[in-house]
Design a protein that fits this description.
By secondary structure, the chain is α/β, with parallel strands linked by helices. It has a single domain, classed as Alpha-Beta Complex (Inosine-uridine Nucleoside N-ribohydrolase, Chain A). The strands form three sheets. It has an eight-stranded mixed β-sheet, sandwiched between helices. Strands 7-8 form a two-stranded antiparallel ribbon. α2 crosses α3 and α4 packs across α5.
Length: about 325
């Protein structure tokens, strides 16, 4: 019967996935259709390493580089002066656990925030972003996935403004928008990721025309992983599952000395994978998540939004498809075993 033909095609397509050099099913079934660079504070909250593991296990993305970025000075996750270098080391450690054999550059970004919103830092991580954005030998779109501050993104835009129309920044960060959501009880201001480098956020939002897909605090807090699922779906899944769950359990124990965090944990960086690797098959887009088109606000020196009548439009995600995101993550961990 004719209706069986598309069914057979879809089954052949989605049940054949190559992962980390291991051939699972038909290796030609899923191939990269976009380029990504991951920029994250991997020596901080372990949610960045969960997202990186998920990204590395996703065959539809070509990971062109991994950047270890800094935290705020004196941050409790890593109060050293080598935060970016430590972050890069943690990314390499995860890749070793996952037995990632393909060559992916892992670079340390700046260990400090920008001195102001007009002076860039220069390092190999910034050069990587610029070089990848200026490539002319591929038509695959480029996404810069930022799960912490925006230091390297801002530095690249200041150094080479012409790259602004050649990539999309997907950023986990920023406070709630009026009319979209209310802040949580006892919220911090400025929001955590924005506060890492306010000057960099001012470059990206106020001074650049780069495309932005923003996942603000009200949305990234939806990515709640229950401890029960960590034990059942992550911890038993080979070396990678044991490594990731070990990081999170150790942190949960440490935090509990100061505050009772209950039985869920926010894996707030995982939407970086959802919005890229898990885009829809045809007419590619993150079709199962919801966003609003808003004028980009001005970010003031205090890290707060200010109305910008002339602001360009950006995507601000209001709801993420956590079911798709977590189910795919759990399935890929199982395939890695």
């Amino acid at each position: 019967m004719t209706f069986l033909k598309p069914l057979r095609f879809l089954l052949a397509l989605f049940l054949s996935v190559p992962v980390l050099g291991q051939t699972i099913g038909n290796p030609a079934a899923v191939t990269p259709r976009m380029r990504v660079i991951m920029d994250n504070d991997f020596s901080g909250d372990p949610d960045g390493l969960f997202a990186l593991a998920h990204l590395l296990a996703s065959p539809s993305v070509d990971v062109r580089g991994i950047i270890g970025s800094h935290l705020r000075v004196g941050d409790g996750f890593d109060n050293s002066t080598r935060q970016a270098q430590n972050a890069a080391a943690k990314a390499r450690e995860l890749m070793q656990v996952m037995n990632v054999t393909r060559p992916i550059p892992v670079l340390a970004g700046s260990d400090t925030a920008l001195p102001n919103d007009s002076t860039p830092v220069r390092n190999e991580a910034v050069n990587l972003i610029i070089r990848e954005a200026l490539r002319t030998d591929t038509k695959q779109p480029l996404y810069l996935l930022c799960g912490a501050g925006l230091t390297e993104a801002a530095a690249a835009l200041l150094t080479a403004p012409q790259i602004a129309d050649k990539l999309t920044i997907v950023w986990i960060g920023g406070p709630e928008y009026a009319g979209m959501a209310l802040p949580p009880p006892n919220y911090s201001s400025p929001e955590y990721n924005l506060n890492i480098d306010i000057a960099a956020a001012r470059v990206v939002f106020n001074r650049s025309s780069v495309a932005i897909w923003q996942v603000p605090r009200s949305t990234y807090r939806q990515a709640l992983l229950p401890y029960s699922q960590l034990l059942l779906q992550v911890k038993p899944q080979g070396k990678t599952g044991a490594y990731l769950s070990g990081l999170l359990e150790a942190l949960m124990v440490r935090i509990t000395r100061y505050v009772n965090i209950g039985e869920t944990y926010v894996l707030g960086d995982s939407p970086l994978v959802l919005l890229t690797a898990l885009q829809s098959s045809f007419e590619a887009d993150p079709s199962s998540s919801e966003y609003e088109i808003r004028q980009a606000p001005l970010i003031n020196a205090q890290g707060e939004y200010a109305y910008n009548a002339k602001g360009r439009t950006i995507r601000v995600y209001s709801r993420i498809d956590t079911q798709l995101m977590f189910n795919d993550f759990f399935a890929k961990l199982t395939l890695l075993k």
